[in-house]
Amino acid sequence: MLVVALIGAIAWAGSAVGLSYLFGVVLPYVAVVTFFLGVIWRMVYWAKSPVPFSIPTTGGQEKSLDFIKQEKWDCPNTKFGVVVRMFLEVCFFRSLFRNTAADVREFDPVNKGPRTIYYSSKWLWFFALLFHYCFLLVFIRHFRFFMDPVPGWLTFMESIDGIMQIGSPRFYWTGGLLLVAVLFLLARRLFNQRLRYISLMNDYFPLLLILGIVLSGICMRYFDKTDIAQVKVFIMGLVHFSPVAPDGISPLFFMHLTFVSVLLLYFPFSKLMHMPGVFFSPTRNLPTNTREVRHVNPWNPPKQYFTYAEYEDVYRDAMAEAGLPLEKQPSSKAAE
């Protein structure tokens, strides 16, 4: 939290004292280049990595005997089934939907003592789905700053997002719901003892960084209002590689832009790479056909095999002297 607050304070103070070009032009360009190069580097590295074991994570019955019902989407054995499983996982978080929670009852009247119980927990699935889809829609909605003229489909999406107009300017539901989802994911790490015990800085930092992006964006829109027209002129200048002077733009905008830039810089080297990484995960992209197809370990170097027949040919006489059983007895000349 202190790191995120320090980033925001530096961006605010720097843009206020005349360093807006650094935070508004140089840092975004560096962040975008680092983001794309870093993501491509990680994806190429994953694509080149061998898969020594067939380890698809399954959630049902594998294909077996004809009278045993197979779970085709949770445990597919065909490429089409794998595509369906990936679609359900990426778009609907199917595996997270089966999330369960464990708790210990201090006294169970049946067992006369403590008992571990398991129960379905859909809250994490719901808020994770809410967070990702709201973040995606907010990201797409910001395309209006990068396009001139703004496409009709984007204007229509904005009108649907703000269909229940509250106040002026129009309240976008995706922004409010994104804030609620981020706060839930953060509170889950703070107030769940077991999760807090295993949480590290790289678990909190992206959540707090996204929280800073959301809060600064909401403040710009509804409280310390920024000249949107001037912001669009400035961003269009960045898009066309002809930056204009960022005069008259609130320091809050540069703080918001700095948070986004830091997130882009951090993305390729963090757990956030699970976004493209899920497509390279052997637990998801491999069919469950280990009973039909032998998976060959690509790490195995070529070997010179020594069969038992060859072994016996080399050591037959010694084995005969030791009285060991042989498939082929020594020749009479060798025996003499």
Structure at a glance:
The chain is mostly helical. It has helices at 2-16, 20-48, 79-92, 94-97, 123-141, 152-161, 173-191, 193-198, 201-222, 228-239, 251-266, 274-277, 282-285, 308-322, 332-335; strands at residues 100-108, 113-120. It has 15 helices and two strands.
What does this entry look like structurally?
The protein has 336 residues and is mainly α. It has helices spanning 2-16, 20-48, 79-92, 94-97, 123-141, 152-161, 173-191, 193-198, 201-222, 228-239, 251-266, 274-277, 282-285, 308-322, 332-335; strands at 100-108, 113-120. β1 (100-108) and β2 form a beta hairpin.
How would you name the CATH homologous superfamily of the largest domain?
Answer: Transmembrane di-heme cytochromes, Chain C
Largest sheet: 2 strands, antiparallel
**CATH topology description of the largest domain:** Fumarate Reductase Cytochrome B subunit
Percentage of residues in DSSP E strands: 5-15%
* CATH architecture annotation name of the largest domain: Up-down Bundle
Counting copies of identical and different chains, the oligomeric state is: single chain
| Biggest sheet strand line-up | 1-2
User: What's the rounded overall pLDDT mean?
Assistant: 88
CATH class of the largest domain: Mainly Alpha
Compute the gyration radius: what is it?
30 Å
Shape: elongated
